Amino acid sequence: MADKANQRTMSVPPSPAAALIDGLQQMLQTATGRPVRRVETHISWVLLDGEFAWKVKKPVRLGFLDFSALEARRHGCEEELRLNRRLAPAIYLDVVPIYGSATAPRLGGDGKPIEYALRMEQFAAGALLSERLAAGSLATTAIDRLAARLAAFHAAAPAAAGETPYGAPAAILAATSKVLGGLQAQVGARTVADLHDWCAAQGRRLRARFVARKCRGWVREGHGDLHLDNLVTLGDGVTAFDCVEFDPGLRWIDVQSDIAFLTMDLTAHGRSDLAWRFLDRWLEATGDHAGVAVLRYYAVYRALVRALVTGLRRAEGLASAGPDYVGTARRLAAAGDARLLITHGLSGSGKSHVAQRVLEVAGAIRLRSDVERKRLFGLHPLDASAPVAHDIYAPAATRRTYTRLRESAAAVLDAGYPVIVDAAFLRARERDAFCRLADRKGVPFTILHCHADPAVLRQRVQARSTRRDDASEADLAVLERQLRDHDALSPDEDLVCITVDTNAPLDVNAIARRWKAAR
Asked: Which InterPro entries does the record associate with it (predicted)?
């Protein structure tokens, strides 16, 4: 573990606990022969000796935790180890008793422990996602791997039992009210009142949805604190660490609340493109498109949480300037621009590539026919469909796929988000069904028509079939059938169409502007 970007080395206040940290720091420096850095948060100290990070909890009693007793700190260390080894086993090593005295502490040994330390692997400075983002070195592949890892983590996490309070409307609204109460001293009363009114109104509107989410198993034992300072690049992947161990209610949450933290934080740091990309990848892996109904509420809540914690740490001199999280909460609460875009084009025309770029720039939720078709038959995106008993590309399966896409698009539109439906849409009846959906929802309807020379289409399809790195299984035979038989766009459809020649350089910003300007 390394010191986080918004922390700084602090002088030690004269207290028995701080004296122990002073003694422990000196002991580690003597044992290792290296300088040992000290990092302080509002609930712990961390000593960095160049190989390990030694985390000692402060004997504090705050509104949301009580570590005043040694036994509570021991239990907290053991819980932190157990819970964080779910996602970061390479970082979290063990809990080590501290013996001796404050002036002459020993790690391990015998006798009666005077304190406990959580031993972790120290990672390199600059490896936090917040630091990578600031340095401009955060790759999109890292975001993709993180989304896949968290989707798998959420799928494997246990679901909350019905009799528990976790994820219930009362618990959700109480948590929000508590955070807003804490913000009273940090921001203007009018701002807090406005946010309270919005959260209360949304809480009433979403009450039945919260109940249904828990009944369907979406409230699970997650991470609870997935912001950029709790994510680190290790090797070619991203690891989440420092989950919430001190309050089960803060980690037994809707999975949408877990991922809302990261999407919010990326947005607050000016990288909404990465936020939409992460969300796209996570939704593709989980299929939880219906869950976006609660996503905006949780994103606002997470912004308020981060605002509160950052304010507390700044008051203690433990944080420097950072994003305006209250402003982020207000912008997220005011957001909402539901609109519907469908792609149109033959296999190899670049529909998915263009859709990916547009969703990142414009901000949208995508539904891919290739992925949803396979999901209907219990397949993962890269699974081959040949072993499946039923032909997943038969006309009946195609009708089921477009019905699923239409139902999911309706749910996302109802949540107030722009939607991109990434499918071939080679039949007029398929396009008409989505045009009617847009009419029913009262949102703009746009067709994104992608085309390229037939020779280029054949080359792309052949290359993709060779790579086998995409959900699409369309081969040259499929492409030849499409070239011979497809319904051209009608004059009326041309009026709502954005045409893209994917042989030419792609101006994704121009495409996004045209789509967002549609009325």
From this structure: Cell-binding_unc_protein, Kinase-like_dom_sf, P-loop_NTPase
